[in-house]
Amino acid sequence: MTREQILNYLKSSDESQLETLWQAADEVRRREVGDAVHLRGLLEISSHCIRECHYCGLNIGNTALMRYRMPVEEIMACAHEGLSFGYGTVVLQAGEDPGLTRQWVADLVRRIKGETPLAVTLSLGERSEEDLAAWREAGADRYLLRFETSNPALYQRIHPVLPGGVPDRIALLRTIKALGYETGSGVMIGIPDQTWDDLAADIELFRELDLDMIGVGPFIPHGATLLGQKGAWTIATEEQVPNTELMTYKVMALARLVCPSANIPATTALATLNTPTGRELCLSRGANVVMPNLTPKKYRALYEIYPSKACIDETAADCRACMHGRIRSIGREVGRGRGDAPRRQLA
After folding, report:
1. Please, are residues 77 and 316 in contact by the beta-carbon 8 Å criterion?
2. 340 within a domain of the structure (yes/no)
3. Residue 338 within any structural domain of the chain
4. Distances from the Cα of 324 to the Cαs of 196, 205, 335, in angstroms?
5. CA atoms of 238 and 71, how far apart (whole Å)
6. Residue 125, SS3?
7. pLDDT surpassing 90 at residue 318
């Protein structure tokens, strides 16, 4: 798929053309990864974060947020609960928290792998190569790190780099891949000043990085951030990408076409824009993964990356039942096992 073709779909409002896109993405998904929808149990283990990202509610400047860090025994109880629900993966997600030390995370990964057959996905932000290597050696299977935008100047404006920090997430993703992780990344759609060319370049980068997992979602800034302030980013130009539900479906479908065998989730951010049918539409337009939340209710509202996040009042059991019902309602089947990337299954 050429840059021109990508741009044509991104800018299109023609319903018949978009229906062609949805059908193509769904057919590629069916052919490459099948009809099974794999469930990844999401566990938000810490809301501490040292970053000052201008859109995220976990940013260090949000002093109104009550912070938490889950104890190991509580994490293990949730992992076992996920296993009892039939999930094949647990996703350990956190803010960029130095309190989650190299040894602590390695020990946790070893314990999960020792007590369960679950695949372990880590989403712990920008960490050193030494940390990443230690966690891979401990048994972690996958690592998620969104590059958010391939435009370096735009990235710097929304995501200030810490002194001595990692200025290039794309280079870090290559390191993660070289360490043997199944590698996941993705972008936000509708960042202030994001152009159509920026977004097309993002989609081309999915293909260049040959990603195993791709997550995309609309830009939804938290009110306690610079970009969440009223009137902070009212931009009305023809080149500005909108942060809409429709744009998110387009990028998801195009991601499926450029990375046919990737695992692509129906993200919570999209479900926040359309709680009744957002996940179902994602699954009919290229997605093959959903991420039911295993985080205990007492923590869920405290992990507020963006406002009005979907499903924060549900229990883990509620979330499981809801996801099973949604999957079956569209004639798809609940996946079994770990749901590894197809090339890993063949290795």
Report:
1. no
2. no
3. no
4. 36, 33, 10
5. 49
6. coil
7. no
Could you tell me the two tokens for 150? 């391939």
Instruction: Measure the CA dihedral 254/257/262/265, to 10°.
Output: 40
The alpha-carbon radius of gyration of the chain (Å, integer) is 19
The pTM for the full model equals: 0.94
Number of domains in the chain: 1
Give me the domain span that covers residue 269: 3-331
User: In the block, which residue shows the tokens 């590698």?
Assistant: 183
Per DSSP bridges, beta strands 36-46 and 89-94 are parallel
- Look at phi and psi of residue 102 and say left if phi exceeds 0, alpha if psi is from -120 to 50, else beta: alpha
CATH code, domain with 189 = 3.20.20.70
The three-class DSSP label of residue 121 is: strand
Look at residues 84, 82, 131, 140 and name the one whose alpha carbon lies nearest to residue 111.
Answer: 140
Q: By CB neighbour count within 10 A (0-12 exposed, 13-18 middle, 19+ buried), where does 311 fall?
A: middle
Which of 16-20, 154-158, 267-271: highest mean pLDDT?
16-20
> Which token pair is 116?
């369960």
| CA neighbor of 125 nearest in space, from 205, 45, 41, 206 | 45
Angle between helices 196-209 and 3-11 (to 10 degrees): 130
What sign results for the dihedral spanned by CA atoms 29, 276, 81, 140? positive
